[in-house]
Amino acid sequence: MIEKGAKIQEPRGKLGILLPGLGAVGTTLIAGTNLILKGEAKPIGSLTQMGTIRLGKRTEDRVPKIKDFVPLTDLKDIVFGGWDIFPDNAYESALTANVMSKEDINKVKPELEAIKPMKAVFDPKYVKRLDGPNKKTGKNKMELAEQLMADMNNFKKDNNLDRVVIVWTGSTEIYLEHDPVWDSIESFEKGLVENHEAISSSMIYAYAALKCGIPYVNGAPHMTHDIPALDAYASEHRIPIAGKDFKTGQTFMKTLLAPGIKARMLGVRGWFSTNILGNRDGEVLDEPLSFRSKEITKTSVLDYIFQPDKYPELYKDLYHKVRINYYPPSGDNKEGWDNIDIFGWCNYPMQIKVNFLCRDSILAAPVVLDLALFIDLANRAGMYGIQEWLSFYCKSPIVAKGLYPEHDIFIQLMKLKNTLRHMKGEDLITHLGLDYYE
Ligand SMILES: NC(=O)c1ccc[n+]([C@@H]2O[C@H](COP(=O)([O-])OP(=O)(O)OC[C@H]3O[C@@H](n4cnc5c(N)ncnc54)[C@H](O)[C@@H]3O)[C@@H](O)[C@H]2O)c1
Questions:
Q1: Of the candidates 5, 37, 357, 384, which lies 20 to 30 Å from 434 by C-alpha distance?
Q2: Quick check: is 118 in a domain?
Q3: CB 105 within 8 Å of CB 95
């Protein structure tokens, strides 16, 4: 953490946001940002654009917008780019994703058409249900990493950018078991040269980004920079990283409900969650090994919130089941069903049913925007390594070794806002004394 009120570099010039994966989430972010810039939409769901922050005592009545409080990059200074295994430009890809209406997409057609994906580093070994033609070739993984570094540097130079950040919006890769090749940067680089199979495509992107000094956020549940080699490299080279797995849809609901149930010391016997979705993400997650990556990030949430070791009478026997069902007619409009079996005074059972008809990418786009803007802010503030204060946006927050992740969304929000207060030399709000509500 930086010193309280340390100097933050102003966001001069333009910020590049590079997205590996120009699918539903990526194109919804780009289309939405351009619609906002044209005055055709509001940045709903974005804390950086709409959120406020209380400063000092409640009686002081100082509540600026977050974007007026910390020096964030203005939306007009963002340049988007990315990679994809499909050569479609962002306009074509947005139409395929079918998240926004054609009418809305057409309003920003030229801006979207201008974004053509660079050739991806991709191996179907790590994303089984997918393959496409727009891929790089090279004699080994190190050579592919070098090609990505060239892409990153050229993107920065060609667009006359001051800074670049990367947010992974590509497909979820399969679950990988720990391998010693991940343990140090030396073994990792040797593994790249030797085409080690424990190094996935997303790890090659993360490595290339860090080598270029670019902050990196992982929006998917798979392992990427949360391996010792890349985590240590980011800290040693003072580069901020964050992740993982955007907190949207069902897990967002879980982290709203579970802290409330626990706060009132109500017990939970079972929590069954099922998702019905028909987008490409759903198709990829239909594959058991990709689902395994997601299952781990989705199920660990409740364990951390309920702390069954501390409250065994309430949560020790909690049966938690998560299902993802691929059902093409649903498209991007995911349906989440939760059945929660709770119990109260004298063990009397009750049930809560939640049926969330959500739009995955509509929820995810502002999360990606905020993560990109905040990780750039962290970089300009001299903060590096894992940015735990960005856990607010993540289903499975990465944390320093030996710490447990915080999943309660309200604690996460307090940590985020207190980090901003600390950055600007303001007093932290502890909710003690009279300052009870924010
Ligand atoms: N939408 C949400 O609410 C949400 C929430 C949490 C996490 N996520 C994650 O975000 C990611 C994107 O979701 P989506 O709905 O946009 O999926 P999508 O399938 O629409 O888009 C992913 C894109 O990534 C591309 N891709 C795959 N591997 C690549 C690689 N190695 N390099 C470059 N491009 C690659 C695919 O071709 C595809 O166009 C997924 O991993 C998903 O699990 C999404």
A1: 5
A2: yes
A3: yes
Q: Tokens 């078991």 appear where?
A: 177
The domain boundary, picked from 357, 382, 399, lies at: 357
Taking each helix axis from N to C terminus, what angle separates 185-193 and 228-236, rounded to the nearest 10 degrees? Answer: 120
Nearest to 19 by CA among 3, 31, 9: 31
238 CA → ligand 1 middle, Å: 28
The count of domains in the chain is 2
CATH of the domain at 23: 3.40.50.720
pTM, full prediction: 0.95
Ligand 1 centre to CA of 75 (Å) is 23
Read off the pLDDT of residues 195-217 as tens digits, 9 standing for 90 and up.
999 999 999 999 999 999 999 99
Other beta carbons within 10 Å of 84: 28
Q: Which of 253, 281, 294 to mutate to test the pocket of ligand 1 (most atoms within 8 A of CB)?
A: 281
Indicate the residue type of 289. Answer: L
What average pLDDT score do residues 62-85 get?
Answer: 97
Domain ranges, residue 383: 15-246+362-423
Residues paired with 78 in a beta bridge = 15
